[in-house]
């Protein structure tokens, strides 16, 4: 297992197009998280899954955003009708379920989205 | 929204010096974690300190936590040019996810 894998690494798209990102977590981890990070800022939480169940969604996740984790394995994040404000780094992380959040997250290298 | 706020926002030091970064947060926590991010890359977990712990060490890293003041500090001793990165504190609470601060950008000059 080589860690958390995200594809693609970079995506340039025209405004109004749909884009989909994929995240493959560490296989033993049952929790998967999506964050968004803009330049010079810390990551902002978008959503998380425990196994295949989506348990929490941020208000940042407008109705143009949807995330899935079929069968509790890989996850996809889709953005429909992209806007320039969607340009950011999209980070995926996974972790085990620990008591009181006892484990740190393992992050992927991210997908950098540029909307032109 | 971002729970933690790091101070300073940017720090520049010479190789061999110590670097101290501070983090303040607003609500009660289960644990606090520090992460490092090299430019354009993902975040790497450095250290986790639980709410009932006051100090923790890992190699050249020393983390303190003061829950009464809702603050934490990260000390990197004998810094190296390779320590140049952004450092983020993140709090874990009953919401079951990490909330990150804005980060401290550390530059270590050779």
Number of strands of chain B: 11
**Global morphology of chain A:** globular
Helix content of chain B: under 10%
Q: Hey, which two chains have the biggest interface?
A: A-B, 28 and 26 residues
Rg for CA atoms of chain A: 14 Å
Mean pLDDT of chain A: 91
Order of helices and strands of chain A: EEEEEEEEEEE
The structural class of chain B is mainly beta
Output the structural class of chain A.
Answer: mainly beta
Strand content of chain B: over 45%
Task: Write down the overall geometry of chain B.
Answer: globular
Unreliable sequence segments of chain A: none
CA-to-CA gap between the ends of chain B? 36 Å
Low-confidence stretches of chain B: none
Whole-number total of structural domains of chain B: 1
The SSE order of chain B reads EEEEEEEEEEE
CATH architecture of chain B: Sandwich
State the CATH class of chain B: Mainly Beta
The fold-level CATH name of chain B is: Immunoglobulin-like
Write the layout of secondary structure elements.
The complex is a heterodimer of chains A (116) and B (110).
Chain A: E1 5-7, E2 10-13, E3 19-24, E4 31-37, E5 44-50, E6 53-57, E7 65-68, E8 75-79, E9 88-95, E10 106-107, E11 111-115
Parallel strand pairs in A: 2-11
Antiparallel strand pairs in A: 1-3, 3-8, 4-5, 4-9, 5-6, 7-8, 9-10, 9-11
Chain B: E1 5-7, E2 10-14, E3 19-24, E4 31-37, E5 43-50, E6 55-58, E7 61-66, E8 71-76, E9 85-92, E10 98-100, E11 104-109
Parallel strand pairs in B: 2-11
Antiparallel strand pairs in B: 1-3, 3-8, 4-5, 4-9, 6-7, 7-8, 9-10, 9-11
